[in-house]
Amino acid sequence: MPMAKTPVIAIVDDDEGVRTSLASLVRSIGYEAQAYESGMDFLRQTPGDDPACMIADVQMPVITGDELQAQLIASGRRFPIIFMTAFPSESVRRRVMAAGAHCYLGKPSSGDEIIRYLEEALAGHAP
């Protein structure tokens, strides 16, 4: 029987420090991390290679996290997205959650909290 493929977690954040720390957090619990510095950067990858889950910043130049989510949904690409933002807004939170986001976290969030939501998203449970 083939071994299950390690889940790939896409990390989309324009802050290199955040990308690096999230990638090492994700790898520390045994998942593969792929980091992207922008939503456009992520959209350029092959659609057939969708991640098991995405952790995305909301405030990013060119294309925001919620615009990225809208584009993915429009092109039929659906996977759990964990949004993180240093500037929480109730209207954005409502919009991304209504569009199917797994959760909407403020920054900074603890590693334990991120891991908990990530495990839930991969297991297909709502928070």
From TrEMBL:
Domain Response regulatory: 8-122
UniProt-recorded Gene Ontology molecular function terms: phosphorelay response regulator activity
InterPro entries, A to Z: Bact_response_regulator, CheY-like_superfamily, Sig_transdc_resp-reg_receiver
Keywords tagged on the record: Phosphoprotein
GO BP annotations listed: phosphorelay signal transduction system
4-aspartylphosphate: modified positions: D57
UniProt xrefs under PROSITE patterns: RESPONSE_REGULATORY (PS50110)
Annotated Pfam families: Response_reg
Gene3D superfamilies according to UniProt: 3.40.50.2300
Protein name stated in the entry: Two-component response regulator
Source organism of the structure: Bradyrhizobium diazoefficiens (strain JCM 10833 / BCRC 13528 / IAM 13628 / NBRC 14792 / USDA 110)
